[in-house]
């Protein structure tokens, strides 16, 4: 509890000047009480809310799709929303009537199986969601109950409750902050789950409630809050707090939102305002939509096409039937037309025709593969198992494998065009490492920039060996992870272990570190186990500075109300000295100021101003270096400017986050003069306050002396640059959507090689004008300018990057502008959106998805990415971090960004091809089979008689032809996984949809049509009327049907062999199995009692097998059926080979082993055209160096 | 190419087999109706007039025994769904199922009694009869073994006797001897194997006698069966068989055609390959090498 006591003394408001100010009492210009602002909360009187009109929703949440009661009807409804299922349902019902051409079981059983399976899957998924909700709802929080605070489950928290939330707990609902353990009612919250921002945000209680900071204070506490109705806006809040007869305005800085976390504060008290689904974060959440892949949606169209075909042939059939009934039937005495029932009544051909329509629709149902859905589902589950089991996507550190959470979208992975990625936690680890610094014009920190290193190596090597670059990248990125101290990755013996004292300019160096150790707002915490200090800092980079300072021997270990104490380990005398700095003022960091200044008085009484700030600022249109610090330097202070700038540029190019450090010494008089001014500004009330403060700060922060700069690495996750490089080569576009600051985002852009020096950056920013129209016009102009620039660009190597921030996006996403914005974004090699809200992430995703019509993939790790993950065609969650919201909402989860490469380039590519081929084959096989039924029916006077035994038909889809096609769908590989990774360009076959375009689908359907014709007519002609065996017997219907069916089985299996390019024993087993099963079935079926087998009794053994013509026909038909396809592939391979054909051939002839030179050259060529990514960057660097060399010559 | 190498010989062999088969076909449905009835054949066939008719068949080539006698009907929809379903297998199989006639409508009951064998198929049993004589000598037609053995043994019961058959107001086709069990009524067994197509042949019997070329066979036939109401043809066929079955040129021709086609395709691809060779695995065909525009 010692810590707690130290903290109690702190008034943190001392550290904050700009972002917080006391709520002005009685200021209520807001329309509280009006429409939309009707909520009334009786504080500490939750019982008031048990009845109308103050009865509000409970605090339990439910994200499930179904409830126990609604599951059956709802899930059934969903199932029969699929046209095909509805159709089969109709068929199943009709099969109970005498109209059915088959037995009822053979219609109902497959349908029940299909629907049951799908529903079981749904139920399982929903159960998981339910358990998740249960977990959240049963979290405990301390709630005021009469006398004391008792623990209660979240779901029992009511509006008006006073709750006590302790450190590192989540807020159970939206709260009004009453007080914290800090005297001035400040607390910190982490809003990662809301907006993805990683720095802590301070919240501040109203002054009137500050005293309520003990449990006992709430005994008689009463108050009324009148505020807005539930709404999704995270950053606004309008309301009044009536307390002790006074009315106080509440603003967002007093509101603690659900799903954010209390940090760096021991406890807070708050009143529950919005509960459960009323809370802002829940209002923000959108219903998770059920996603279907592009192929599946297209498949629906094919099914529609097949339905039309079905309808047409059914119409033909019933028309034919009616005609036959009317004109021929009276002559068919052997059918007793006079006694015919309504279905065959020659006097009422129309009725008969219509009823026959039903029969026909059922008979030709084989055109529509009922087992397609089941098979696809089975295949996808197996594919998902492969993804889950892939050892190469298993993260050894966390022990989490990749996971396909829904198996619906496997093949969609192979068609991704644009990736929208979150930054923090996805690309980066949310960890800052102090990497380099530049002090007094000297650069320290040994590890040189990765890109330079690689480029140098390139130049030295034969350009052919560029492939080795990857090895370099990966080895480098691994090296970066060796540092044992979190936040510190600095290697330079000149500064370590007190050696800095031996350096020239050691005064400057000492000062540099002192600034690092003093200029911050963090609080030290003694780790009792190790005896060292850890720091609770607002942002990770501040923490990194302090860790660095500590490592350099300047250990910050104590903060009091007005002072900071630093222990200097290495001094001239050799003994550690504690130095105390009195803090006079803090001008803290805001995103607008981009700098932080402290004014301190050191032990000698010298007043020092220490300042750290961004070295550059993003300007309006292009990224220029407008320096925050440099502009404020005094003339004498520019001594190191040139060197430092150079270093800063290098750091910036390497993707490091840089800050410049400066100081100045102040005279006592100068300071006190300014301080009075500043205090005046600080205590003033009203709208001008901010401006006055700004001005005062501005006055002080000038004439600084530059001392150096720091470079902090926003640590990328392992393998991210390499992965981005590969993805870029695979032709994917990457958009980064981050809630973080623009500078951070740009730094990461550099670090990931999404940006590079020489890339033209189009930066769109809204002006600060209040007039909406003006802002819009301005943004439009910027967008148009950007597009103009791109159009006019002549240099083929030029590439563009678009950078836009959230405020601007608000306008850019409006209907009239969004298409221009998208157009611009699509032309740019990379797009970075910063400071975007979760909603905007989702909106951008929707824009890209709908605007380009291509497949989008969103990847993120936090709750703020949920919207985007749900909106995108595919959502990928990063698992293994705190909070599983993103993973819960996602379709796939991986534990590291780098696994995305394998997920897309290998699994995506395979799954796409597999599913595409599988579906095509499915349609082929069902057309080939279904149409033979139609032809035959035409020969039976359109009576709806099928030539095959019911059992053959039942088994056709379910047993005989399902396993080979499933093995195709699960195991087919056109090229091996290594080749996929070596030639990411092959991935483009997916986004370009080469394997599932209408041309190909219709080709397959045509093939099916041809096959059906060949199968049917060859059989018919051969078995027309002649004896088919030496015994003189002629073929009856069963013999013909069985032979035809044998032909079909053989043809389809040969076809699938021709389709496959990858064989394992499983494929062999399934295909041979299919054929053997058929013969076995025939033998067994024939051996059964004739009660069951009817005409098929002994058909194989007695009739067909001894007849040579049966076998010769099978051979003839099977070969002839596949002749067109064989000719087609021979033609294609010969004259128009596709990439994977060539690579297959190369692999087959082992050319890649024999001719490695060629193999590598091709790998290189395949990736030349990329504009972002590491390789592109190295290329650019090489070009640059070459042109320099030319100039020198 | 391989296919053509395999196919062409098979084609040749089958064609030869088919050529070995000798077939005599005689279409008689018009000729066996007296001149005066030619305009209204239906009334002739439904009348009680004498329907005996004599035909002369000349043997073209040596026909080795056994010679199979077929009747071929045309335009007869034995494969019609209404027709196909109208039977009761359980009734045929075993005596105990004699009253299971529900699937036989409308030919299920007669005079309030179940019919055995019931259903339209049995009711419409073919009832033309053929008697052959060669040089005034009766040629015996063997009716044994014209059906599948499994049918005789398992599907048509030895203890099932025709009952109440062709007893109703409408007489369909042939009547059955109520003393002979169904397993011996091979005509019925053959007939009950419904044909797949509206034109079909069914085995009538076997002649166990070699026929020399130019011998003339006299056929005395009873033209009882009504194909006139649906203008169907009737043919009498005498045929030998080969290992392939009956005369079936098509199979051989098809084999030859497909083989030839394969040969042609193989040839043309070879030509293409020779004219425009593409080295297998030649990387210059990779997409990024072919269109310099990139992806």
The fold-level CATH name of the largest domain in chain A is Calcium-transporting ATPase, cytoplasmic domain N
Q: Biggest interface between protein chains, with counts per chain?
A: A-B, 90 and 86 residues
Q: Tell me the radius of gyration of chain B.
A: 27 Å
Number of strands of chain A: 33
Q: Shape of chain B, please? A: globular
Strand content of chain B: 15-25%
Sheet-strand content of chain A, in percent, reads 15-25%
The CATH class label of the largest domain in chain A is Alpha Beta
Distance between the amino and carboxyl termini of chain A: 72 Å
Helix content of chain A: 40-55%
Task: Tell me the CATH architecture of the largest domain in chain A.
Answer: 3-Layer(aba) Sandwich
- Molecular shape of chain A: elongated
**Biggest sheet of chain A, open or closed, and with what strands and sense?**
9 strands, mixed
CATH homologous superfamily caption of the largest domain in chain A: Calcium-transporting ATPase, cytoplasmic domain N
| Biggest pleated-sheet summary of chain B | 5 strands, antiparallel
Q: Detail the poorly predicted runs of chain A.
A: 1-10, 19-30, 461-483, 617-626
Q: What would the average pLDDT of chain B be, to the nearest integer?
A: 85
Family (chain A): Belongs to the cation transport ATPase (P-type) (TC 3.A.3) family. Type IV subfamily.
Domain P-type ATPase C-terminal (chain A): 887-1137
Transmembrane segments (chain A): 301-323, 354-374, 922-939, 951-971, 1001-1025, 1037-1058, 1070-1088, 1108-1131
GO molecular function (chain A): ATP binding; ATP hydrolysis activity; ATPase-coupled intramembrane lipid transporter activity; magnesium ion binding
